[in-house]
Design goal:
about 50% helix, Rossmann fold, elongated, 2 domains, six-stranded parallel sheet, alpha/beta, Arc Repressor Mutant, subunit A
């Protein structure tokens, strides 16, 4: 029996996923968590075979929680289940050490297959993910696009600036000084070959990111 730790901040989503997951005779939801912080405590308590983790959550998002879990428990096997399907999210997930990336539009059959694959230590990408992720990107930094070359903190700053936040607002959200945020902003502009915040917003729109930028709460994590 594959024991799953289900992590999502929406109770209705967790209830629905639990029902779907429990349809499989060989998979059971052993525990649930409402955010990344709870997932770390629950993992230590139940020692699941697979963690099914959402990305966008308050207090600690799925990316940060995954990194911490893998740091504390190198054996942790994590499947990211999210509404985001853009290439840069999938690549960052896999580079963080997660084994799987599945969008919430996937079928029940695909979810069960993903959990089984991750439980066996195999990498799994959804059908949508296979269309947008070239796994060769993971083997060579030279293969990364400019957006994928941003560090996690640079990406956080990029997301908030793309939402139209001023430097002081970004600093307050991330718990950083305005000077530090300006440094990250400069790196973002340089790596993306942009000139100013207007260009950042335009870049986000051109790449279809404006509706998928994580919310402020999910970005406010240390890193």
């Amino acid at each position: 029996m594959i024991r799953v730790l289900l992590v999502d901040d929406h109770s209705l989503v967790r209830a629905g996923l639990r029902r779907v997951i429990d349809e499989a005779a060989d998979i059971v939801v052993a525990a649930e968590a409402r955010n990344g912080q709870e997932s770390i405590a629950q993992y230590a308590e139940v020692n699941p075979d697979v963690v099914v983790m959402d990305i966008s959550m308050p207090k600690m998002d799925g990316m940060e929680a995954s990194r911490r879990l893998i740091s504390l428990h190198p054996e942790a096997r994590i499947l990211i289940l999210t509404r985001y399907h853009e290439e840069h999210y999938a690549v960052r997930t896999l580079k963080a050490g997660c084994l799987g990336y599945l969008t919430k539009g996937s079928s029940t059959r695909e979810l069960h297959a993903a959990i089984r694959a991750v439980a066996q230590g195999r990498r799994f990408l959804s059908d949508e993910g296979k269309d947008v992720v070239d796994l060769q990107l993971l083997s060579s930094r030279d293969g990364l696009t400019p957006l994928q070359s941003l560090s996690d903190r640079e990406f956080q700053v990029f997301c908030l600036l793309a939402r139209g936040q001023a430097l002081k607002e970004v600093a307050a959200t991330l718990g950083l000084s305005a000077k530090t945020v300006e440094t990250y902003r400069s790196r973002v502009l340089q790596k993306l070959c942009l000139r100013n915040n207007v260009d950042i917003c335009r870049f986000a729109i051109q790449h279809g990111l404006t509706d998928n930028v994580p919310n402020r709460a999910s970005l406010a994590t240390p890193g």
